[in-house]
Amino acid sequence: MKKIIAILLITIFAYAESTFSDPHPTFDEPRKIVIQLYDSELNKINHNLSTIYNILKEYPSESLKVVVVAYGNGMRALKKDYDKNTLTRIESLMEYDVEFIGCRNTMESMKWKDDDFLDDVSFVQAGIVELIERQVAGYIGIIAY
Questions:
Q1: Where does the pLDDT of residue 115 fall: very low under 50, low under 70, confident under 90, or very high at 90 and above?
Q2: What mean pLDDT is predicted for residues 17-40?
Q3: Domain range spanning residue 63?
Q4: CATH number at residue 113
Q5: Residue at 16 is within a domain
Q6: What backbone phi and psi angles, to 5 degrees, belong to 50?
Q7: Cβ-contact 82, 76 below 8 angstroms
Q8: How far apart are CA 51 and CA 62, in angstroms?
């Protein structure tokens, strides 16, 4: 009985139509997405994180690259003193290779240091410029909320 079910499932998946547009995402040509965080309001941040989880569920991990660029008030969401549950969600996304990038211009204006932020956050001088350059490099820019 198990063999019959396995064969049936393989057949179904082999002939199921993909919902992906052509060209389909692959290891060599993944879908590249850059999401901007510019607001620190808890519900908005968690909506953005839920959007990322939804994207991760739909694409095979080897065919997807997700980058989150925080600047302005959005930088607060990456600080170690932000909402603990939300920080746990962010750290979980980092384990799925979602890259979080922060803006040094915001940090400098707020007098924040690298140690104020989660350990795996990387930094660029200008978050908005990083967004522009990622889009020029083929990333799809998303403002989830």
A1: very high
A2: 81
A3: 21-142
A4: 3.40.1260.10
A5: no
A6: -65, -40
A7: yes
A8: 19
In a domain, 127, yes or no: yes
Task: Report how many domains make up the chain.
Answer: 1
Name, in order, each residue with C-beta under 8 angstroms of 75's C-beta and a sequence gap of 6 or more: 37, 40, 102, 103, 106, 107, 110, 112, 117, 127
Write out pLDDT tens, residues 80-108.
999 999 999 999 999 999 999 999 999 99
For residue 93, what are the contacts with CB-CB under 8 A and spacing of at least 6?
49, 52, 53, 56, 66, 68, 100
How confident is the model over 1-18, as pLDDT tens digits?
A: 555 554 444 444 443 444
Please name the residue ranges forming H helices in the chain: 2-15, 42-58, 84-95, 104-110, 127-136
The residue written with tokens 């968690």 in the block is 46
How distant, in Å, are the alpha carbons of 25, 35, 120 from that of 140? Answer: 13, 8, 23
